[in-house]
Design goal:
Layout: H1 2-15, H2 23-26, E1 27-29, E2 68-73, E3 83-85, E4 88-95, E5 100-107, E6 113-118, E7 139-140, E8 144-148, E9 154-158, E10 163-167, E11 183-185, E12 188-193, E13 201-207, E14 213-219, E15 229-233, E16 236-243, E17 246-250, E18 257-262, E19 273-275, E20 278-282, E21 289-292, E22 298-299, E23 306-310, E24 321-323, E25 326-331, E26 336-341, E27 347-352, E28 366-368, E29 371-375, E30 380-385, E31 392-397, E32 407-409, E33 412-416, E34 420-424
Parallel strand pairs: 18-22
Antiparallel strand pairs: 1-15, 2-34, 3-4, 4-5, 5-6, 7-8, 8-9, 9-10, 11-12, 12-13, 13-14, 15-16, 16-17, 17-18, 19-20, 20-21, 21-23, 24-25, 25-26, 26-27, 28-29, 29-30, 30-31, 32-33, 33-34
Length: 426
C-alpha cells in the first residue's frame, strides 16, 4: 500500500509540473526582450498569439470613414499582414502574377510610402487565387526586416530599404503557393515549407546576421501553409510546427525532432497558440483541434499528452485565439464562431456570425480590451465580449475585401484591404 501511494504521489508531482499556478511559466511562448512588446513586429503581434498588450484603449467601432485617421493605396497585390516598429510599417506585395515581389515601408503616422525593396527574382510558383504570391507576413527585430517569398527565397532588408542578404531555398513546388511567415528566434530566422516532390517539405534555420543555413531538417509532409512558433517547455525551448497529419516539435539548436502528435488532417494553415500548459493546434476544413501537453518525447499521439481533441468549430484558414481561460475560433467554411474552455475542451457557445459562406474568413482573430474581433473576407468585423457567454456587441464594416489580419499599436488599428492600407484610431 505504501509503495502504491508513493507511486501515485510521484505521478501527481510529474503532472503538476505544467498545471496549476506554475503552468504559465512551464509552457510559454519564447519572445524577444527589449522593445519587442511595444510594437507589432511579426505575424500575430508581440505575443505571436493575436493579443494586444499594454494599457492602451483601442476603438471598437469603425467603418471605411468612421475613426479612420488615414488611408493610402498599396501597390501590387498581397494578403500579408502589416507589421509595425516605432514609426515604420512594413508589408509584402507582388506584381505581374508573382514575377516581381517586394517589401514595402510606410510612415506609420500618415501612411506615406517611404521605400520599396524588390526581391531577387526566381521562378514563380503556382498559386491559388485567394492566396496569391505575397501572403507571408514579414518580421522585424528593430534593425532589419525579414521576409519569405517562396521560390524567391528569404531576404533581410535594413530600415533604409537596402538589402542586407538574400538566401535561396531552391524552387518551391506547392499545391496553392506559399503563405508561411518567418519566425525570429534568438540569432536565427526559422521557417518551414511543406511541398510536393520526392524530397517533401523541410524546416530550416538561417543565421539572422548573414542568411547562412545553420540547419535544415527534411520533412515528409507535402501540403501546408503555416508558420512555426517557439515555446519554452520546463525551461527548454522547442520549435512547433503544426502541419499535414501531425504536430511536430524540433530542437532549435539542431533541428532534431523531439516529439510528434498525430491527428491533424491534410491541409493545415492555422498557427498554434499556447497557454494553460498546452499547445492548441487546429487543422483541416473544420477540424480537428488538438490540445497537447508538450513535455513528451517520440510519438505521443496515444498518450496522455493529448489532453483533449474536438472536431467542432475548427477553422480551415484563420488561427485560433486564446484569450484568458477561453479558446476562440471561427469555422470559416460555415461562418460559425466557437468558444471552448481551454483547459478542458468544454464547449461554451457556438454561433454563426454573418452569412454562411464557404471560406468566408481569412484574417485571424484578435483579443484586446476584454473583446474578441473576428473579421470576414468582406471586411465585416464581429465584435464579441470575451467570456463564456455569447454577446455580439456590434459589427464594423470596412466595405472592402479584407484577407489580412490587423496590427494593433498604441491604440490604433492598422488594416490592409485588397487595395489600401488604413489606420483606425480615436
Amino acid at each position: 500500500m505504501r509503495l502504491l501511494l508513493a507511486c501515485l504521489m510521484i505521478a501527481c508531482l510529474g503532472h503538476a509540473r505544467i498545471s496549476g499556478a506554475d503552468e504559465a511559466d512551464a509552457v510559454r511562448m519564447v519572445l524577444p526582450a527589449g522593445d519587442h512588446a511595444k510594437y507589432w513586429p511579426c505575424w500575430r503581434g508581440p505575443t505571436r498569439q493575436g493579443l494586444a498588450v499594454g494599457a492602451a484603449e483601442y476603438p471598437d467601432k469603425w467603418s471605411d470613414t468612421e475613426n479612420v485617421l488615414w488611408k493610402v493605396a498599396v501597390p501590387g497585390k498581397g494578403n500579408s499582414s502589416p507589421i509595425v516598429w516605432k514609426d515604420r510599417l512594413f508589408l509584402t506585395t507582388a506584381y505581374d502574377n508573382g514575377k516581381k515581389r517586394s517589401l514595402l515601408c510606410f510612415d506609420r503616422g500618415n501612411g506615406k510610402k517611404l521605400w520599396e525593396c524588390f526581391v531577387p527574382p526566381g521562378k514563380p510558383e503556382g498559386a491559388y487565387g485567394k492566396n496569391g504570391w505575397a501572403s507571408g507576413t514579414p518580421a522585424t527585430d528593430g534593425e532589419r526586416v525579414y521576409g519569405y517569398f517562396g521560390s524567391f527565397g528569404v531576404v533581410a532588408v535594413d530600415f533604409d530599404g537596402k538589402q542586407a542578404w538574400h538566401a535561396s531555398l531552391g524552387e518551391i513546388n506547392t499545391l496553392h503557393g506559399m503563405a508561411g511567415s518567418p519566425l525570429l528566434y534568438k540569432d536565427k530566422v526559422i521557417l518551414y515549407q511543406d511541398q510536393e516532390g520526392q524530397t517533401g517539405g523541410f524546416v530550416v534555420a538561417l543565421d539572422k546576421a548573414s542568411g547562412k543555413e545553420l540547419w535544415k531538417t527534411q520533412r515528409r509532409e507535402s501540403v501546408g501553409w503555416g508558420s512555426p512558433i517557439a515555446v519554452s517547455v520546463n525551461g527548454k525551448d522547442q520549435i512547433i510546427v503544426s502541419s499535414q497529419s501531425r504536430v511536430c516539435a524540433y530542437d532549435p539548436a539542431s533541428g532534431k525532432e523531439i516529439w510528434t502528435c498525430g491527428g491533424n488532417l491534410v491541409e493545415v494553415i492555422p498557427t498554434p497558440v499556447v497557454g494553460h500548459g498546452m499547445i492548441f493546434c487546429c487543422s483541416g476544413r473544420a477540424g480537428p483541434t488538438l490540445a497537447i501537453r508538450p513535455d513528451g518525447t517520440g510519438d505521443v499521439t496515444r498518450s496522455d499528452k493529448l489532453v483533449w481533441k474536438t472536431i467542432k468549430g475548427s477553422p480551415f484558414v484563420p488561427s485560433p485565439l486564446l484569450y484568458g481561460d477561453y479558446l476562440y475560433m471561427v469555422n470559416d467554411m460555415v461562418s460559425v464562431v466557437t468558444c471552448f474552455e481551454a483547459r478542458t475542451g468544454k464547449l461554451m457557445w457556438q454561433k454563426r456570425c454573418g452569412q454562411a459562406t464557404q471560406q468566408g474568413f481569412s484574417a485571424s482573430p484578435v483579443g484586446v480590451n476584454g473583446k474578441v474581433f473576428f473579421t470576414n473576407d468582406e471586411g465585416e468585423t464581429f465584435v464579441l465580449a470575451a467570456g463564456p457567454e455569447f454577446r455580439l456587441l456590434h459589427v464594423n464594416r470596412l466595405n472592402a475585401k479584407t484577407l489580412a489580419s490587423p496590427a494593433l499599436v498604441d491604440g490604433s488599428w492598422y488594416w490592409r484591404t485588397e487595395r489600401e492600407l488604413l489606420c483606425v484610431g480615436k
